[in-house]
Amino acid sequence: MSSLRLPIETDHLVLRPFERGDLEAVCRYHVLPTVQRYVERPTRYHEDVAKVISIMRDQVELHRPGDTLTLAMVRKGDHALVGQVSLRWSDATASQGELRFAIDPAESGKGYLTQALTALIDLAFDHFRIHRLMVRCDGRSHHSVKLMQKLGLRLEAHYREHALFQGEWDEELHFALLDREWRPSAQVVDLPVRGRVA
Ligand SMILES: CC(C)(COP(=O)(O)OP(=O)(O)OC[C@H]1O[C@@H](n2cnc3c(N)ncnc32)[C@H](O)[C@@H]1OP(=O)(O)O)[C@@H](O)C(=O)NCCC(=O)NCCS
């Protein structure tokens, strides 16, 4: 596999690794209660966000299963950091990956996650040769469900009240996409169904 080339450009965004100087921009959305329920590491204060940024700054390649690649979504026009996307390589034998995302609510509805996730899915299938990608989504977030459907992900599971978040039951949806199901315009070739892999 050739080495990963960053940053990645989309129509309106540059996806690049996080930097120490991103603290103020990440604080603007990461600590918001509406974002907190979707991020991996809870944050309340600047110091918490600084720790998260230092973790994300190291997430720049997928060398082994368990590794995560996290990229900041930076708007081309004014260089504002509007959100983040991640790709986790969860299993090597079966080439499984998971996507995560968070966006500043003030910047939602502008097509940014459609662009960022499209680029990350391209990267997962074309560069990292991931076979299947999954996304966990809040069942009550209709916009996320629409986003998943727009990207062509398939709803595979609906977990009802299987965890509590701040005293409230969750509704977790699992969406997934196989490499050969990805949009025909992508570089991904239509792979035959794999037989035994292990
Ligand atoms: C849901 C969310 C992650 C989508 O990200 P986004 O960058 O806003 O998504 P996009 O602008 O690329 O829109 C993708 C689709 O989502 C829907 N959508 C997103 N925001 C919308 C809005 N404000 N009004 C109506 N539809 C919206 C639309 O169907 C849209 O596709 P379309 O524009 O072709 O109709 C974002 O709106 C958000 O963070 N919301 C609050 C937090 C949240 O729910 N997070 C969920 C994590 S599981």
List the helices and strands and how they pair.
Blueprint: E1 8-9, E2 13-16, H1 23-30, H2 33-36, H3 46-57, E3 68-75, E4 81-91, E5 96-103, H4 112-127, E6 132-138, H5 142-151, E7 154-165, E8 168-178
Parallel strand pairs: 5-6
Antiparallel strand pairs: 1-2, 2-3, 3-4, 4-5, 6-8, 7-8
The structure holds coenzyme A (COA).
Short description:
This protein has helices at residues 23-30, 33-36, 46-57, 112-127, 142-151, and strands at 8-9, 13-16, 68-75, 81-91, 96-103, 132-138, 154-165, 168-178.
The averaged pLDDT comes out at 92
Low-confidence stretches: none
DSSP helical segment count: 5
The CATH C-level name of the domain at 8-133 is: Alpha Beta
Label the overall shape.
globular
Strand composition percent = 25-35%
* CATH-level-2 architecture of the domain at 8-133: 3-Layer(aba) Sandwich
